[in-house]
Each structure stands twice: as structure tokens, then as C-alpha cells.
Design goal:
By secondary structure, this protein is an alpha/beta fold. Helices cover 42% and strands 20% of the residues. It holds the Pfam family Glycos_transf_2.
């Protein structure tokens, strides 16, 4: 079985990170390592990352590193450069994974024609499950590449996004130069476009649970409108730096 390194980028994620880390202690088999990459959190994120595992699980190796530059793509590359596992798995601090995550990842990438995988993201919060948005997110994995990159769709392109817990081989990741650090958003879709040259992009038929905090802040109608607007403009080639203004950070 290949060794899996889990990379978690953080910025003011104290409210979510503890639960995510506790769930990682339940993984069977465990990951090879967990790397939390913080970029100057002003809350208790570092305390949660550094102290939590001492009481949760002494056997799970967690490395906490500080990245001077902010940006999810920058932090994930920084974490990937510190990782030593055969496979990289990128996990958001507000996303919760199944207990057999490592087995699923190994089984998926055990197929040599698959270069990258991700899950079906079920978005939910303390009050509700966002069934409509979750369904749309599932479908856009397929319809977005079919609409904008049909020649690549039939070669195996699927567009995965960060809350789908993307994973790939470390060698393939660096052969593709990792995440584009110039992109403030859509770095995950961009990585799929690069990794499809290595093999198929596969959406695993299992779910992960992601926080609905952005939808709760915006409201379902506004959130869907923003997701569609950003996705369409990115699909036709609009610069992601322009699109970032419509996608504010919400904690």
C-alpha cells in the first residue's frame, strides 16, 4: 500500500480544524503523515494544530509548518514540498472524510490510467444539508469539462475542486509543476487540466462532508449565481485574478 501524505492549508480555521483532525485519527489504515500549512492565522488555529494531536492520538504523525506567503495554492505547494509520501491528498480544514480514506485513495490510484481522484462533496451545516448545491457540484464535475473542453472530456478530464478532497501521485504532481501559485482561485481546476496529460481524472462514488459556511453567509440563490458566474467566465478563459473579487474569504 502506498504512503499517503495529507496536506491541510489553514488560515483562521480554529473553529473547524479540531473536528477535522479528530476525524483523521479514526482513519484505518492511518495516513503516513499529516501536514498542516498555516499562513499567519490570527486565531487559535496553530494551538489546535499543535496541541490537539497530543491528546487525540500519539501514533499519528502531524507536522505543522508556517508559510510566509498566503494563498491556498501557495500553501498546498509548500506542504507538498515537505511531504514524503508517495501520494498527496489535499484536504480543506472544514471538510470531513470517511474512515477508509486511505484505502479508497490507494484503490483508486492503483489503476494506472487514473492520475487524480476526488470525492462527491456533500455540503452541510448545523441546520441543514444543501442538497441542491451538492447535486450541482456533483454534476459540474462532468458538464463543465464537456462544455468547455470537450476534446479533453473524452480523454478523461473531470473538473474536481478543493472541497472534493483531491489526491494524486506526488511524482505526477511535481511533473505538472504543482498548483499555479499565480491563481488566487480555480487552482484546483487548473491542476486537473494539467494532470489529465498523465491520465484520467476520476470522481470516486463516495462522499465527503464540507461546511456550508459560504452558502450560509451568501444564501443559496446568491451562492449558486456566484458559482455559475465564476465557473462560466473561467471556462471561457477569464483571468482568475479578476474572478477572485467575487469569491470572498469566509471563515
Amino acid at each position: 500500500m502506498s504512503q499517503v501524505s495529507i496536506v491541510i492549508p489553514t488560515l483562521n480555521e480554529a473553529a473547524s480544524l479540531g473536528r477535522t483532525l479528530r476525524q483523521l485519527t479514526l482513519l484505518n489504515p492511518p495516513p503516513f503523515e499529516v501536514i498542516v500549512v498555516d499562513s499567519g492565522s490570527e486565531d487559535q488555529t496553530l494551538a489546535v494544530a499543535k496541541q490537539g494531536f497530543g491528546s487525540f492520538n500519539q501514533s499519528l504523525y502531524v507536522q505543522v509548518v508556517s508559510c510566509e506567503r498566503r494563498g491556498r495554492s501557495i500553501q498546498m505547494n509548500y506542504g507538498a514540498s515537505a511531504a514524503t509520501g508517495d501520494i498527496l491528498c489535499f484536504l480543506h480544514a472544514d471538510t470531513w472524510v470517511p474512515d477508509d480514506l486511505i484505502t479508497i485513495i490507494n484503490k483508486t490510484l492503483g489503476e494506472p490510467t487514473i492520475a487524480c481522484g476526488g470525492f462527491i462533496s456533500l455540503m452541510s451545516g448545523s441546520q441543514t444539508t444543501r442538497w441542491g448545491i451538492s447535486l450541482h457540484n456533483y454534476l459540474k464535475t462532468y458538464y463543465a469539462p464537456l462544455l468547455f473542453k470537450p476534446h479533453l472530456f473524452f480523454r478523461g478530464l473531470r473538473l474536481l475542486f478543493g472541497d472534493q478532497v483531491m489526491f494524486c501521485r506526488r511524482t505526477d504532481f511535481w511533473d505538472c509543476s504543482g498548483f499555479d501559485e499565480a491563481l488566487p482561485i480555480m487552482e484546483d481546476g487548473d491542476l486537473c487540466l494539467k494532470l489529465v496529460k498523465k491520465g484520467r481524472i476520476h470522481q470516486v462514488n463516495r462522499i465527503v462532508h464540507s461546511s456550508d459556511r459560504r452558502v450560509a453567509k451568501w444564501g443559496s440563490f446568491k451562492a449558486n449565481a456566484i458559482y455559475l458566474y465564476i465557473g462560466f467566465l473561467w471556462g471561457i478563459g477569464v483571468d482568475a485574478n479578476y474572478l477572485k473579487q467575487f469569491y470572498q474569504d469566509i471563515r
